[in-house]
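Model: You mentioned two targets. I'll fold them one after the other.
Researcher: Yes, keep them separate.
Model: Target one:
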Amino acid sequence: MTSNNNPVIRSLLETDLYKFTMWQALFNSAYNDNETEYRFVCRRPPSMPLAALKDEVVREVEHLCSLTFQEDELDYLRSLRYMKSSFVDFLSIFRLQRRFIRIEGNGDALEIVARGPQVHIMFFEIFVLAIVGELHARRWPQEEALAEGRRRLAEKIAQLKDFAPEAAAAQDLAPFVFFDFGTRRRFSRAWHEEVVETLMAEVPQFFKGTSNVYLAKKHGLTPMGTMAHEYLQTFQAVRDVPLRYFQKAALDAWNDTYRGDLGIALTDVVGMDAFLRDFDLRDAKLFDGLRHDSGDPVEWGEKALAHYAKLRIDARTKRLVFSDGLTVQKSISLWRHFAGRAQTGFGIGTHLTNDFGPSYPALEIVMKLVRCNDRPVAKLSDSPGKTICDDETFLAYLRSVFNKPA
């Protein structure tokens, strides 16, 4: 375990791949001048007041703003075939700016707001979440927590090894693969790496990658990720794009940038039904698959398969990626349901990197885009409690445009 005096973030690669891929798509688009606001939210009351962390968070963010990309990091990004030289050249001179982020205590709550050019401030998100999460976790008795975390990780590995004969029997038809999606809510930097190293050693036949670019580079893993909600939400508030067509505009801009790479589309910004109305034959052929992040996963998957069938596309050539609150057992259950009907993949987050039992609860924190170009944006989630918007009038209008009930 690292010393509490060590900075939480020590490399600008210590973030999720989709921060780079969304950043590049916007950087290379006609919408690279967006002015935006991102806001930190704790969805569930924490066990201790987060405002107590304010001074430490300030120090960590100031350290973060001193970091730059190193030459070997830039070389690694250039080695990813979908990263463009012009974007990596921009990263070579990039540094996060402290003036764009405000950190304050508000009663017991911690208030963090980033405002400024989107192609600058969108990069704060994962770092801020990892900083707050680790500073919070440092308040727990470390050795006791880590002992419980290791015990729980061993149980997960035992589950996977028990499942291995069943998976092996179906390997040719429907391989079971999962990825680490746990950077944003991890217990600590050191624990995150221990989890990844343990999974690589114990279940390499199943563990195939990580969203964390630093760990992917260090351990020779595949960096995983495409887009998040903020990317599609941005197109709710850009010039020349009618609200009704924001999803189409976002998908078109993605295809213009990646030309067939990174082909997993996120479906739940305004709900699966509204997404599928926009996901036409062209998109269904161009994109390799879809990612689930809210609502009932079985119902979602069945809708995806029915949509492919309607378009006369063999769903076995497409991938369904599940990433909403997954556990190992839930992932196995979903694999059993969809095996042989589509390719699958499972992005497991908090259950891998911050599962320490009820005595050490993980924070339920997000940092979301709430305004773009002085206009509100929103996510109409298929899961209760995940809808995010600070403007009820816009929320009602968005629901009416996409015929989604409150």
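Model: Target two:
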Amino acid sequence: EVVARANATEYGLVAYVVTESGARQARMGRALDYGMVAINRVKITGAPIPFGGVKQSGIGREGSRHGSEAFTDLKYLCLDVA
């Protein structure tokens, strides 16, 4: 019920979970529909962290190598060098 209620919001930037159970930590991390999930801690951001949310909290990420992906286009180039 807790996960269903948490996911029922139109926003999804960050969720916080406090639990000692390792199994519950893994379950909640997978089940919560948020761009970031903090488990047993308050500080969640920093330079190497892909900061961003889902739903009405935005799309994409900023920071880390994932933040630059929105500004790049992938191109495959196949050359015959013979």
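Researcher: Noted. Anything on target two?
Model: Residues 2-71 form one domain.
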